[in-house]
Write a structure and sequence with these properties.
By secondary structure, this protein is mainly alpha-helical. The protein has one domain (5-230). Helices cover 65% and strands 0% of the residues. It contains 11 helices and no strands. Helix 4 (49-78) runs antiparallel to helix 6. The two termini are 19 Å apart. Residues 81-91 and 234-243 have low confidence and may be disordered.
């Protein structure tokens, strides 16, 4: 099923709500997923639990880093304003940068981010977060691609036949179109994702909740400030607006 117009307009809020829901299950007395794993590993002598915890957290940080890189790469070709716009843009088909390997790199980054936060969720919160994000992302993709098929016709049909939807190809599947990436605006627009990576990496390095909390707060505040500045610029119309 495709997402409704309401879901698409409020996709960022709904994605945030899914993250909040996943973490809110702690309120029901659920145990942290990583803590549960460490307790289980405690039955096996000789396994340093702190090492296991750091490995799991670093894996989460690596997934968050992958999210930040992929989303920044995609935003450099799509334009930051289109990425975060509440409207669905389908006037132009973007097929450069990561879009030569995967049709929905921004949504791929969102999925990777949800996986990156899994070590910090509860046993019940982890599947709620991951399944919730995957389900909602699939609905959004179906809505966007239906609109692109309507407006772009055979061009989008040929593109979708060549390029996978969400699991990226290791090699480009379509020729380079020669679009110029806007790296600075993309980096600023995806500041929150880089902040999330910094928070997870800082927590993995120090195991300090204070460092994690400070980095998360800085990511949210800096991202809000950057977006406020970006939205003062003239808008650019393009296809594939993903959150």
């Amino acid at each position: 099923m495709t997402a409704t117009a309401f879901e698409f307009r409020n996709r960022s809020l709904i994605i945030t709500a899914i993250f909040v829901l996943g973490f809110s299950l702690y309120a029901f007395g659920d145990r942290n997923l990583l803590e549960a794993l460490l307790r289980w590993l405690g039955r096996w002598p000789g396994i340093p639990q702190e090492t296991v915890a750091r490995v799991a957290l670093w894996l989460g940080a690596l997934l968050a880093l992958s999210c930040a890189i992929i989303r920044t790469w995609a935003a450099a070709y799509l334009d930051t304003q289109v990425v975060h716009d509440r409207k669905l843009h389908s006037a132009r088909l973007v097929a450069d940068g990561p879009y030569r390997r995967v049709r929905n790199p921004l949504y791929l980054g969102t999925v990777l981010l949800s996986l990156g936060f899994v070590p910090l969720t509860s046993r019940f919160g982890a599947p709620v977060l991951v399944v919730g994000i995957l389900t909602f992302v699939d609905r959004l993709i179906r809505r966007e691609e239906a609109e692109l098929l309507r407006t772009q016709g055979d061009a989008f049909r040929a593109y979708s036949d060549a390029v996978p939807r969400l699991l990226p190809s290791l090699v480009p599947r379509v020729p380079c179109s020669g679009d110029k990436p806007l790296w600075l605006r993309a980096l600023l627009g995806e500041a929150m994702m880089w902040g999330f990576f910094a928070a997870l990496a800082g927590f993995a390095w120090t195991l300090s909740a204070r460092v994690y909390g400070f980095a998360m707060a800085f990511a949210l505040v800096s991202s809000a400030a950057v977006k406020a500045a970006v939205w003062r610029k003239p808008r650019v119309d393009a296809a594939g607006a993903e959150p």
